[in-house]
């Protein structure tokens, strides 16, 4: 029996992956912000006899302190992990700059900083698994650059820009993680699922006409969750042999693209470390 931790595992892709591994007979730890959705996850697990292998941990992953709490709870309860899947995200595009109580831009905190903290914080327990994998659901290989002087987009904020920037940050996170991992046991995979028919995608759209148009578009080009997770399952079960890889659905993304620049990756790693050190002193 494998042990899999999934952030954002009560909705969409994360929920689909969680249900797959529960049905397969594995233990699944789901981290999410909604206790109501967590209860639904546990109820569903009971219906197919997996209640003893389904764990829900409630947390606001936009907060560093909550990520650290999850790390300690996982370490106290489990000797090893086999796979970590990062799916937690905010589908809604914020119109204005919004900070958490820790002074961190919300999207940055949830979509990038959480993955940084959890990935490194759970690294040792993950290395106890036979073939450990981190799969980061983002959008690897998007054109553009990371502004290392303003990684939280505090200047000239745009919600859409912050989302795209977050994907590029995760590209560099994967590069730095693989580069700094001297043990080299963990396989880090960046994965772009492309268009997926999830409720969260449409719930994030306020304008009714825009929502109707998006539903029509996604009905044409989008895949249902059960289909969209198939390449993810394949990668988790049969990870590439390289320490870092990137995919858009089943197609490999070239790591030679500028978005995977090793020097920028290490700079971002250092900046993030300094940011976290500053938060710990508050």
Helix content: 40-55%
Strand content: 5-15%
CATH domain class name: Alpha Beta
User: What's the architecture, going by CATH?
Assistant: 3-Layer(aba) Sandwich
Rg, rounded, reads 18 Å
**Strands, total number:** 10
Structure characteristics:
282 residues, alpha/beta, Rossmann fold, 8-stranded mixed beta sheet, two-stranded parallel sheet, 10 strands, 47% helix, globular
What does this structure look like?
This protein has 282 residues and is an alpha/beta fold. It has a single domain (3-193, 229-280), classed as NAD(P)-binding Rossmann-like Domain (Rossmann fold). Helix content is 47%, strand content 15%. It contains 11 helices and 10 strands. It has helices at residues 12-24, 35-47, 64-77, 106-121, 123-126, 159-180, 199-203, 208-221, 225-228, 230-237, 262-280, and strands at residues 3-7, 27-32, 54-58, 83-86, 133-137, 187-192, 196-197, 223-224, 244-248, 251-252. A hairpin with a 2-residue loop joins strand 9 (244-248) and strand 10 (251-252). The protein is globular.
């Amino acid at each position: 029996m494998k042990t899999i931790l999934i952030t954002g595992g009560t909705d969409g892709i994360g929920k689909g992956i969680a249900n797959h591994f529960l049905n397969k007979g594995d233990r699944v730890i789901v981290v999410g912000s909604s206790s109501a959705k967590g209860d639904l996850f546990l109820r569903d697990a009971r219906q197919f006899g997996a209640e003893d292998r389904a764990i829900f941990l409630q947390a606001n992953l936009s907060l560093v302190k909550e990520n650290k709490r999850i790390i300690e709870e996982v370490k106290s309860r489990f000797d090893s992990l086999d796979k970590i899947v990062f799916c937690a995200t905010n589908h809604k595009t914020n119109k204005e700059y919004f900070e958490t109580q820790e002074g961190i831009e919300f999207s940055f905190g949830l979509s990038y900083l959480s993955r940084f903290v959890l990935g490194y914080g759970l690294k040792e327990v993950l290395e106890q698994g036979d073939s450990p994998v981190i799969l980061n659901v983002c959008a690897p290989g998007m054109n553009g650059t990371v502004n290392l002087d303003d990684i939280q987009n505090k200047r000239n904020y745009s919600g859409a820009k912050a989302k795209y920037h977050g994907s590029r940050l995760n590209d560099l996170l994967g590069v730095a993680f693989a580069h700094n991992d001297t043990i080299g046991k963990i396989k880090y995979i960046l994965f772009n699922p492309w268009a997926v028919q999830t409720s969260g995608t449409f719930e994030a759209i306020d304008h009714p006409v825009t929502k109707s148009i998006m539903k029509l578009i996604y009905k044409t080009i989008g895949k249902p969750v059960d289909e969209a997770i198939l390449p993810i399952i394949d990668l988790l079960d049969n990870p590439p042999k390289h320490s870092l890889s990137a995919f858009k659905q089943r197609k490999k993304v070239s790591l030679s693209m500028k978005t995977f620049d090793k020097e920028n990756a290490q700079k971002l790693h250092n900046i993030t470390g300094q940011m976290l050190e500053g938060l710990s002193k508050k």
